[in-house]
Amino acid sequence: MANVQLVINELKKCGVTHLMGLPDNTSAALFSELAENPDIELITVTREGEAFALASGLWLGGKVPVIVIQNTGLLESGDGYRGTALRMRVPLLCLITYRGYSRTMKMRADTVGEPSLDHYSRADLDSAAIMTEPTLDAWGLPYEFIHSDRDVEKISSAFERAETESRPVALLITEDLT
């Protein structure tokens, strides 16, 4: 688990002005804390694809946005990512909460080769989790993981990579923020 205050401090260090997305169980504490924080403006969206468009517009206006969405919303937002943030080469940090991560990692350890149709339809596995990393790879969206407090410093390096390469970069958050 990663501490929300450490995440916020790292975002402030990067000069973030806006955070937008949809809260979920993993990111709820971050959204709650930012609602009371005057340093980073919180914007909630109705669909995750909107977050990419809004962040791109804020960036054009000279702001420093970050998006926070769940992996299920990532799958919904492909065109928003492709048609705005990627095409415009927006240096955007995407914090993606990874619903189903633990079970997916166990399934991968027990499986030889690619997941089968049976894996995608199993009630005990989250198909969005199985699709997350292959989708990021297919979309050319580089990513790393935040598993705990010791990984929070990756926010600054991911931010730097996004700016250096003029592109979105993702961090996958695998545990609830506290």
Overview of the molecule:
- The protein has 9 helices and 6 strands, in the order H-E-H-E-H-E-H-H-E-H-H-H-E-H-E.
- With 178 residues, the protein is an alpha/beta fold.
- It has a single domain, classed as Thiamin diphosphate (ThDP)-binding fold, Pyr/PP domains (Rossmann fold).
- Helix 9 links the parallel strand 5 and strand 6.
- Helix 1 (4-13) crosses helix 2 and helix 3 (48-60) runs parallel beside helix 5 (78-86).
- The radius of gyration is 16 Å and the shape is globular.
- The mean pLDDT is 94.
Mean pLDDT: 94
CATH homologous superfamily designation: Thiamin diphosphate (ThDP)-binding fold, Pyr/PP domains
Q: What does the main sheet amount to?
A: 6 strands, parallel
Uncertain spans, ≥5 residues at pLDDT below 50? none
Could you state the oligomeric state of the chains shown?
A: single chain
Number of structurally distinct domains: 1
Rg on CA atoms, Å: 16 Å
**CATH topology group:** Rossmann fold
